Amino acid sequence: MPGADKETDLSERIESFLSELKRCGSGAGSLRGSAETARETTALLRRITAQARWGNAGELMEIIRKEGRRMTAAQPSETTVGNMIRRVLKIIREEYARSRGSSEETDQQESLHKLLTSGGSSEDNFRQHFTHLKANVIEAINELLTELEGTTDNISMQALEHIHSNEVIMTIGRSRTVEAFLKDAARKRKFHVIVAECAPFCQGHEMATSLCKEDIETTVIPDAAIFAVMSRVNKVIIGTQTVLANGGLRAVNGTHTLALAAKHHSTPLIVCAPMFKLSPQVPDTPYNHTKLKSVDTILYIHILSKVNAHCPVFDYVPPELITLFISNIGGNAPSYIYRLMSELYHPEDHEL
Amino acid sequence: MAGKAGKQSRPRKAEKDEEEQPLQAVLVADSFNRRFFPISKDQPRALLPLANVSMIDYTLEFLTSTGVQETFVFCCWMSSKIKEHLQKSKWCRPTSPNVVHVITSDLYRSLGDVLRDVDAKALVRSDFLLVYGDVVSNIDVSQALQEHKQRRKMEKNVSVMTMIFKESPPGHKTRCEDDDIIVAMDGKSKRILHYQRAQALKKLHFPMNIFHSGSDEFEIRFDLLDCHISICSPQVAELFTDNFDYQTKNDFVRGLLVNEEILGNQIHMHVTRDGYGARVSNLLMYDTVSSDMIRRWIYPITPEANFADQEGQSCTHSRHNVYREPGVSLGHGSQMEENVLIGRNTVIGANCTISNTVIGANCVIGDNVTLDRAYIWNRVHIANDVKVKQSVICDNVEVKHGVVLNEQCVLAYNVVVGPDITLQEGTVLSMHHPDEEDDEDEDEFLSDDDVGYSKDKTKQKGSCSSYFIMLFQNEVHGTLQRGLDENISCDNLVLEINSLKYAYNISLKEVMQILIRVVLEFPFQQQGAQISTAQYSSHLLPLLKKWAPVFKNYVKRPQDQMDCLASMEEVFLERETHWAALVKVLMSVYQLEILEEEGIMRWFKQSSTTGKSQQLRRNQGLLKFIQWLEEAEESSEGDE
């Protein structure tokens, strides 16, 4: 039966995606960037919409929520998965509202006035069936996919406004967004880049090699020298793993040090992050994803049983240390992040 | 032209097919030893929980993440439980990348039996991974696998197995002392030249021929930890089938190394530096591997990863390696200090201090409880004021208030420990009576670990060999009896005794001793133990005459004569009343030319240690005989 085949095919794909997620976080599988994960999540959600059995928007949202919970549980540190799920849920809500004919987009927001006047639950919980809902949702998801593909280019296009000639830029670790950003600026401007190596995985080395290939003058420094070198730096440009709801960052370890040093020297800190990294999480649950991979740590520390070795992967950077967020929709201040979030996600979807 | 292209592409395609064979693994879910008794009486070792996840799940996760696509799980003890567990687990879902086949049989007695079955069923098509069900590891085997395949391609099928070791300094706690090995290897090709278990040995001997291996880089290493993971070629299974006495991996390795010149097979090794691999072979290793897991040394296999995909088992990871599953409630003032894993729906009372502990699901723990390095499994009730130090408490145990468990105690399933009891170090409490163990099958389980365990070794080896000797003795008696009844010729008797010797693996010396013993005791067997000396001799001497050729076949060298006499001495020492008969026996044996004067004289002159044998030598009859013998000697020399 083709229906049953489709369903098993779908669940197989979901399972394989889940196991990929579980493994990629550890570095055992292929290391993925957040953009790839976002794209694959969205593609999978599109497939679920197309192939799963649902009669109305409510059911579809339930299905997506259920799969979404499993996906986020598989790899909690990979927040782009949850973000894409919330985006798709928002898309479904919008399409449903459009199909119903209520054209005011502002209906979506809870406001005091609405609470007073409407009284009780306004929606009929998405139970109405619309024949074209599926096609519309899939089309909207395709638009989302196109947007995802263009994020890095959109960000790089803004590079020339921010980087001027003969500037010294500092960055930390390896971010594909920042790399593209700097390479784009390097086509027209000449500047210097200082890369902090970000031990113990030393991703900064790869970043420096890659920048060198584009003839950008690069210097690699150890993390301990960040403060010392900061006085000579004009701008700090970094990438991040997640942008939190309060405007703070969850970025690679060492970023907090960098941000504090920049604040001390009043050097502007610019964060290049595409919109799909924006997450409705708040920093009260510090999930500090610990890894232990370094050979040196194992060899001599393992001998002493009383010693615990910690190797946290992420840092929290509070919003007051950040100057500017550059995303695919333009530059924004950290205090504006909450507003951007309300445009991307529906408040009921914050908790999957 | 098309034809030629076709021909060219076909061998290439065949090669590609060969390379794309899915990686297979053989998982032996039975350890063939009783290290975890009495815990493993109720639950097979592979299903015991380590950090609240069954051990076999860790092994399967290791295999799956290293790219194995087909696993054969072999179970013997309590196989139905293992099968049930696997079928409910994520490995048997249709979407699992690793297809798991469970094969059960009650006849497996050792690793050798399993591999012979693998060969008989022709399950493996190409190189496979061989692991035990209690291996916990995160090693990425693909590099070792590449090297192995390369080696086999370069020298056609000479390398039979690649063993995986981890570098680990001696004395490190992850090294199991029973498993310590010393390895001599060729530094360049990583070939194993000599392999020996090093436990409790003060001196080690290396045969000279390993130094002539033809390479100039030679390493002797003691810093290796055996991960019990091996990459085997299909030849391994065939070799086990060919050699029926290979029972354990140790046998196999040593056998191969000894027979290397004849068969030309080689074993190589792969040493990993990063990556963790250990086998939970006894309770101390259980403690070590558990605490390594909690302290995240086996990343990416960590408790909160929930790789086994169990519902409701995802836990949160907080500072100081404290993991909590959903539904945990902690009383007021309780401290989870560090390295603690608490299972779901567990209730912990007030003012408890918990550190370096794993607690299972649905436990109820009272107030003022101190848990340090405790491993508590599911549904355990612990009342107030209990102290537990480095102990294992299994499912459904009830510990009443005021109990103190000192180090290395084990409370097996369903035990209830009463109020205000202090258990000494190393106490094991179980619902199973210890004597119950003996009525299990008499067949010996053969595994590498037994050889290492020093106390058990003497008991086990002793009981094993004396058991066989008993059997042999009975068989010889039966043979001789039949020889008498049916008038079988001595040649045939010799043939029968020889075949019995091979069947029971008895040495030649022992054969002779037992033969003497049986013959000398024959009259007692026939006519009861109370016969007089005269009756005894009259019965025995014709028998000696009849079976003289049999004796002559076994007593050839002077040493044999000494052994023969020693054996006779033993028999007669047991029967003090019949010493007079000894003279007659010696006389007849001498006359039948089974023994010679020199032998007898030497034996007589031998200074004996026990008072009884000294007394024997002072026996009148014996002295007279010896005197006569000396005179006879002189006279015979005089004649010549």
Automatic annotation (TrEMBL), chain A:
GO biological process terms held by the UniProt record: animal organ development; central nervous system development
Transmembrane segments annotated in the record for this chain: none
Annotated keywords: Cytoplasm, Initiation factor, Protein biosynthesis
Major place of residence: cytoplasm
A matching Pfam family: IF-2B
Record text on subunit structure and interactions: Component of the translation initiation factor 2B (eIF2B) complex which is a heterodecamer of two sets of five different subunits: alpha, beta, gamma, delta and epsilon. Subunits alpha, beta and delta comprise a regulatory subcomplex and subunits epsilon and gamma comprise a catalytic subcomplex. Within the complex, the hexameric regulatory complex resides at the center, with the two heterodimeric catalytic subcomplexes bound on opposite sides.
Summary of the function given for this chain in its UniProt record: Acts as a component of the translation initiation factor 2B (eIF2B) complex, which catalyzes the exchange of GDP for GTP on eukaryotic initiation factor 2 (eIF2) gamma subunit. Its guanine nucleotide exchange factor activity is repressed when bound to eIF2 complex phosphorylated on the alpha subunit, thereby limiting the amount of methionyl-initiator methionine tRNA available to the ribosome and consequently global translation is repressed.
Name this protein carries in UniProt: Translation initiation factor eIF2B subunit beta
Protein's organism: Cyprinus carpio (Common carp)
From TrEMBL, chain B:
Top-level lineage group: Eukaryota
Coiled coil: none
Subcellular location: Cytoplasm, Cytosol
Domain named W2: residues: 466-639
Stretch list, region Disordered: 1-21, 433-454
InterPro entries to which the protein is assigned, alphabetical: ARM-type_fold (IPR016024), eIF-2B_epsilon_N (IPR035543), eIF2B_epsilon (IPR051956), LbH_EIF2B3/5 (IPR056764), NTP_transferase_dom (IPR005835), Nucleotide-diphossugar_trans (IPR029044), Trimer_LpxA-like_sf (IPR011004), W2_domain (IPR003307)
Keyword Protein biosynthesis carried by entry: yes
PROSITE patterns for the chain: W2 (PS51363)
Compositional bias per record (Acidic residues), positions renumbered to this chain: 436-451
Gene Ontology molecular function terms on file: guanyl-nucleotide exchange factor activity; translation initiation factor activity; translation initiation factor binding
Pfam families membership: LbH_EIF2B, NTP_transferase, W2
SUPFAM superfamilies found in the cross-reference section: ARM repeat, Nucleotide-diphospho-sugar transferases, Trimeric LpxA-like enzymes
Keyword Transit peptide assigned: no
UniProt keyword list: Cytoplasm, Initiation factor, Protein biosynthesis
Database matches in CDD domains: eIF-2B_epsilon_N (cd04197), LbH_eIF2B_epsilon (cd05787), W2_eIF2B_epsilon (cd11558)
GO cellular component: cytosol; eukaryotic translation initiation factor 2B complex
Family: Belongs to the eIF-2B gamma/epsilon subunits family.
Subunit text: Component of the translation initiation factor 2B (eIF2B) complex which is a heterodecamer of two sets of five different subunits: alpha, beta, gamma, delta and epsilon. Subunits alpha, beta and delta comprise a regulatory subcomplex and subunits epsilon and gamma comprise a catalytic subcomplex. Within the complex, the hexameric regulatory complex resides at the center, with the two heterodimeric catalytic subcomplexes bound on opposite sides.
Name of the protein in question: Translation initiation factor eIF2B subunit epsilon
